[in-house]
Amino acid sequence: MAYLSQAQTSDWILYYLEVMPVLAFTAAVGAARVFRRLRPGAKPTWLEPALALGLMGLVVSDVVVARRKLSGMSAEIRLFHEGVAKLPKKPNVVFVRYAPQRHMDIALVENRGMLQNAESWIVHDRGADDLRLYALARGRTAYVFDEKTGQFYEAKP
Q1: How far is Cα 100 from Cα 151, in angstroms, rounded to an integer?
Q2: In angstroms, rounded to a whole number, what is the distance separating the alpha carbons of residues 139 and 29?
Q3: DSSP 61
Q4: What letter would DSSP give residue 102?
Q5: Distance between alpha carbon 143 and the CA centroid of its chain, in Å?
Q6: Are 93 and 133 in contact (CB under 8 A)?
Q7: Percent of the chain scored above 90 by pLDDT?
Q8: Terminus-to-terminus CA distance in the chain, angstroms?
Q9: What SS3 class is residue 83?
Q10: Smallest Cα–Cα separation from 121: which of 106, 138, 104?
Q11: Nearest Cα to Cα of residue 81 among 110, 123, 124
Q12: What pLDDT is recorded for position 152?
């Protein structure tokens, strides 16, 4: 319940998943109590199927919206990695210059395994401090990826 007090974007629901069964159970108990209090003849026969269809529609709508949003987020990462793979000079080091107004949950900096054997090092662009890292990257071509424009260009350290 503590997560409910935090301001989150609508697509960041990971921590709310734990509480969803509790909320669904509470709603079901409340609906059952309301139906029990109605007189047997006061409840139309079409009401329960109509409510079920309405809830199914909401679930389908949420799934469609979530898939669209996640697909858009993963497309940005996929396009970046395709761009890194197409860089002409290997081995290289790619300095990622994040856009000021960026989606906080998308990280493009990612390295796996033994760095000395990797075709590409993907690191944060830290301005003038990049020279210190580039000095360690002997024989690697330096590239900068500008997230704002979506472009790669060769850097001249």
Answers
A1: 15
A2: 67
A3: H
A4: -
A5: 25
A6: yes
A7: 22
A8: 50
A9: helix
A10: 138
A11: 110
A12: 96
